[in-house]
Amino acid sequence: MNQDVIIEVTNLVKHFPLKKSLTQTLREQFFYRGKEPIDLKVHAVDKVSFKISAGETFGLVGESGCGKTTVGLLLLKLIEPTSGVINFRNEDISQLSEGEIKTKRKEMQIIFQNPYESLSPRFSVLDTIAEPLRLLKIYNSEDEVVERVKETLKSVGLPQTEDFLDRYPHELSGGMRQRVGVARAYTLNPSFIVADEPVSMLDVSIRVGVLRIMKDLVKKFQTAFLFITHDLALARYMCDRIGVMYLGRIVELGKTEDVINNPLHPYTKALISAVPDPDPEATRTEEIPIVGEIPSGLILPQGCRFNPRCIYAEEKCKETDPDLLEADPTHLVACIRFKEVNNLVKEGEVE
Amino acid sequence: MVLLEVNNLKTYFYTRAGIVKAVDDVSFKLEKEQTLGLAGESGCGKTTTCLSIMRMIQPPGKIEGNITYKSKDLGKLSKKEMKDIRGSKISMIFQGAMNALNPVHRVGNQIFEVIKIHEPDVSKEEGYNRVFDVLTSVGIDPERARDYPHQLSGGMQQRALIALSLVSNPDIIMADEPVTALDVIVQSQVLKSVKSLKDRLGLSMIIITHDLSVIAEICDKTAIMYAGKLVEFGENRDIFKEPLHPYTAALLSAFPSLTGPRMELKEIKGAPPDLLTPPSGCRFHPRCPKVMDICKKKNPAYTDSRKDGYVACHLY
Ligand SMILES: Nc1ncnc2c1ncn2[C@@H]1O[C@H](COP(=O)(O)OP(=O)(O)OP(=O)(O)O)[C@@H](O)[C@H]1O
Ligand SMILES: Nc1ncnc2c1ncn2[C@@H]1O[C@H](COP(=O)(O)OP(=O)(O)O)[C@@H](O)[C@H]1O
Ligand code: SF4
Ligand code: SF4
Ligand SMILES: [Mg+2]
Ligand SMILES: [Mg+2]
Question: Is ipTM over 0.95?
Answer without folding.
Answer: no
